Structure formats: C-alpha cells, structure tokens
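Throughout our pipeline, every protein is held as a single compact record rather than as scattered files. Nothing more is needed to write down the fold, since each code stands for a local backbone conformation. For reference, a complete record is included directly beneath this paragraph.
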Amino acid sequence: MADAQRTSEPTNFVHQDEIWKAHVNAEKHLAKDWPNKWGFLEETCKEYEQESLKLKEEERKKLPHHQAARPPTPPEKIIHVGPSPSVPKTTQAFIGWRSAHPDLQLEKSNTLHHGRRSFLKELGWPLDSCS
C-alpha cells in the first residue's frame, strides 16, 4: 500500500542521490574502522579453527583400529554388470523384455509367498465390512 502511494508522489532524484551517497560514505567509513573495532575476531576465529583441527586429529588417533574408517570399496568389486540383451524391434516385445531372461529377473530367490492372514480377521471384523 505504501508503494502505491509512492508511485503517485513526485520523485526527487537529487535527494535520492544524496541519500545513496550518504549510505555509500557510511559503509566506506565503517569498512575502514572495522579492523580497529572488530579485528580481534579474525585472530580468534583462526585460533579456533586451528584448535578444532588439532582436536579432530587427536580424536582420529584415539580411535581403536577396529573403529577406524576404512577406505571405500570400489563398486566394481561388488556390482557385476553383464551385457544387456538386444533391444526388441516391436513395442509388444519391448514390454517385459528384460524380465523374460532368467538372469535379469528382479526376484533372484524363490517366488514370494504372502501369508493368508487377514487384517479384518485380526481385528475380529466381518470380512464384508470394508467392501
């Protein structure tokens, strides 16, 4: 709402320029005085970082051998990818073309068997109560 009122007021460009110059001069003055007022924080921050690194190194050295971080195993040693079968030429053959090969099926073990338990029977409700 204040912006709508500002657009109808005439803008004094000289006054806006003076305000901008005052902001820039204030920022230059503050930037020049900052090291004298707050420069001690830079040294304190650097000391804190060095102390933090030393503590981290000490903690790494204190860890027992069995808890130390091991280098990561390259994925090539774990994952073995074989060649893909050729892509089918028709869209009908494209559906399920990878699962048709026994070595590319998602279910590597036996088929999954779901139990015959019913949630409704567990609650003691009649079977037709949710239909």
Summary: The longest helix spans residues 13-38. The helical segments are 2-8, 13-38, 40-62, 75-78, 91-94, 119-123.
